[in-house]
Design a protein that fits this description.
The protein is mostly beta strands and 112 residues long. Helices cover 0% and strands 41% of the residues. The chain has one domain. The model has no long low-confidence stretch (mean pLDDT 81). It comes from Trifolium pratense (Red clover).
Length: 112
């Protein structure tokens, strides 16, 4: 079960967003997305039958958003979503399915 890791994080320079248009599925491997200026999910994230985790981290500015059909299904794994951006950054997630779900917004935005 190989993990999937996508990084677009240039540190504090504030460059690097991730826009995921297509579904990503692993057979038990974890999925990790790390960005500087936002994560936008239009495709599903699924860790298959295994116990892989799904981790989303945004470090500088912007929002973490998932469209209505962008379900995150971690199966037996955990889902962790963290926005460390500047003031006003939002987390908007419409589909979560996992055994342990942790959402942390360290800015003054709205989490739904």
């Amino acid at each position: 079960a190989l993990p999937v890791s996508i990084t677009a994080d240039s540190g504090n320079t504030g460059n690097g967003a991730i826009t995921l248009e297509k579904p990503v599925t692993t057979t038990g491997g974890s999925i990790t997305l790390t960005a500087s200026t936002g994560i936008d999910l239009n495709g599903q994230l699924t860790t298959g039958a295994g116990a892989g985790d799904i981790t989303l981290v945004n470090n500088v500015s912007g929002d973490i958003t998932a469209a209505a059909d962008a379900t995150m299904n971690a199966g037996l794994g955990n889902i962790s979503v963290t926005n460390n951006g500047t003031a006003g950054g939002k987390i908007v997630l419409q589909g979560l399915d996992g055994t342990g779900i942790h959402v942390e917004n360290n800015v003054s935005g709205v989490t739904t």
